[in-house]
Write a structure and sequence with these properties.
39% of the residues lie in helices and 16% in strands. By secondary structure, it is α/β, with parallel strands linked by helices.
Length: 252
């Protein structure tokens, strides 16, 4: 089967998984947005997916955002950034028309982005990445510290905190994964109950190829899916999720 057909078939099956889950629990299917997690995926493959009307893309690396930007310009789509962000890359990130960053987990990086946006008056949507699994291999702020971080972020004039993001437990998908997602939802509810001026968190970015059903059951509004659409990747995910992992491949 050629690549195009594979991507299209995968998307169809994924669509089925999403709608079956929504139906089963009585959630309107349009409450769940599909973000195409496109790390390592070629622009040609991404185009195939975009042409089906799924127009939300998430990259993990500025370099990949840059490399694919031109080739995807002619197709309508929206760029989110879902990878770990370093302050020396913020300037580059802002060149590529990113509308939302899912991975804010400290005030300093947010302040850097805010300061860069100030002269143009532009604003940026952000999500706070929460480490709900307690794994040290993952980025994200501890759940208990998320409310005070959101409170501080709300003072930055160019940023709009829209919700929370998490990556579920690695490996076995089980009740622990569900607990991670529940914790994210509870953390969102806790923050909303604080009635921080200007802050209403509506987005829960959680769920990937292996655990999207559980995420949808627990209230995901954005699921981030790569493998189930584009196939297996050649790099281990640790390359994208933790730059300190031994054996990481460094390309920048
Ligand atoms: C790669 C990635 C995904 C998608 O993972 P799959 O298991 O391939 O669906 C989702 N979120 C983030 C942050 C990722 O880096």
């Amino acid at each position: 089967m050629n690549t195009g057909n594979t991507v299209l078939n995968n998307l169809r099956q994924l669509q089925d998984r999403i709608s079956r889950t929504c139906e089963r629990i009585g959630r309107p299917v349009d409450e769940v947005r599909l973000l195409l997690a496109t790390k390592t995926v070629s622009p040609e493959k991404i185009r195939i997916a975009l042409e089906t009307g799924h127009t939300l893309i998430g990259e993990n690396k500025i370099q990949e955002l840059r490399d694919k930007f031109e080739e995807l310009l002619s197709l309508p789509h929206e760029n989110h950034f879902i990878g770990h962000l370093q302050s020396n890359k913020v300037k580059d990130l802002l060149k590529y028309d990113v509308s939302c960053i899912h991975s804010i987990d400290n005030f300093s990086i947010a302040e850097t982005i805010n300061n860069r946006l100030l002269p143009s008056g532009k604003t940026m949507d952000i999500l706070v990445q929460v480490n709900t699994s307690g794994e040290t291999s993952k980025f994200g702020i501890a759940p208990g510290l998320a409310p005070s971080l959101v409170e501080r972020l709300s003072t930055l004039s160019q940023l709009r905190v829209k919700g929370l993001m998490t990556i579920g437990l690695f490996g076995n998908i089980d009740e622990k994964t569900r607990q991670n997602f529940q914790l994210l939802r509870q953390t969102r509810d806790t923050i909303n109950a604080l009635s921080i001026p200007g802050v209403v968190l509506t987005e829960l970015s959680m769920g990937m190829s292996g655990d999207l059903e559980i995420a949808i059951e627990e209230g995901a509004t954005i699921i981030r899916v790569g493998t189930a659409i584009f196939g297996e990747r050649q790099y281990p995910d640790s390359y994208y999720w933790n730059e300190n992992t031994p054996g990481n491949i460094t390309t920048e």
